[in-house]
């Protein structure tokens, strides 16, 4: 009985560790096309294949189009946020080229903890 309890405690600790890692704040600030970050900022095209390190990242193949909704700023300006079909996530800005810009002026806003959760099929995923 104690062996089963030990295994459950170990699984709980592993699960908690993975959850903390997947909700790590990547930046305190982001730039958007509007204060609510609802408007698409631009349309970009992938210039290389990209496979992200965890579920918060958008995976894509060369040539795919991505709609950009925000860009992390200040301490981590390399990551942008966008969607491809129903998939949504972060990706490095140097993996895409800008095809079309939709907004003229970017607005800088604070990020939220929910910006860094894994989202799959309209559900939060806690690993």
From TrEMBL:
Gene3D superfamilies: SH3 Domains
Database matches in SUPFAM superfamilies: SH3-domain
Main location: endoplasmic reticulum
Localization of this protein: Endoplasmic reticulum membrane
Database matches in Pfam families: SH3_2
Cellular component terms per the entry's GO annotation: endoplasmic reticulum exit site; endoplasmic reticulum membrane
Membrane topology: Single-pass membrane protein
Segment forming the signal sequence: 1-22
Domain of life per record: Eukaryota
GO biological process: endoplasmic reticulum to Golgi vesicle-mediated transport; protein secretion; vesicle cargo loading
Residues annotated as domain SH3: 39-101
Keywords: Coiled coil, Endoplasmic reticulum, Glycoprotein, Membrane, SH3 domain, Signal, Transmembrane, Transmembrane helix
Function, in words: Plays a role in the transport of cargos that are too large to fit into COPII-coated vesicles and require specific mechanisms to be incorporated into membrane-bound carriers and exported from the endoplasmic reticulum. Plays a role in the secretion of lipoproteins, pre-chylomicrons and pre-VLDLs, by participating in their export from the endoplasmic reticulum. Thereby, may play a role in cholesterol and triglyceride homeostasis. Required for collagen VII (COL7A1) secretion by loading COL7A1 into transport carriers and recruiting PREB/SEC12 at the endoplasmic reticulum exit sites.
Subunit annotation: Interacts with MIA3. Interacts with the COPII coat subunits SEC23A, SEC23B and maybe SEC24C. Interacts with PREB; recruits PREB to endoplasmic reticulum exit sites. Interacts with APOB.
Family: Belongs to the MIA/OTOR family.
Name of the protein in its database record: Melanoma inhibitory activity protein 2
């Amino acid at each position: 009985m104690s062996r089963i309890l030990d295994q459950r405690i170990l699984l709980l600790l592993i699960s908690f560790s993975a959850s903390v890692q997947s909700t790590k704040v990547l930046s305190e600030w982001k730039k958007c096309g509007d204060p609510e970050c609802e408007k698409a900022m631009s349309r970009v095209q992938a210039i290389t294949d990209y496979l992200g390190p965890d579920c918060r990242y958008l995976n894509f193949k060369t040539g795919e189009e991505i709609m950009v909704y925000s860009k992390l700023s200040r301490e981590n300006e390399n990551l942008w946020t966008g969607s491809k079909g129903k998939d949504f996530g972060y990706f490095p800005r140097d993996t895409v080229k800008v095809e079309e810009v939709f907004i003229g002026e970017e607005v800088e806003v604070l990020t939220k903890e929910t910006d860094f959760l894994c989202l799959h099929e309209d559900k939060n995923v806690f690993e």
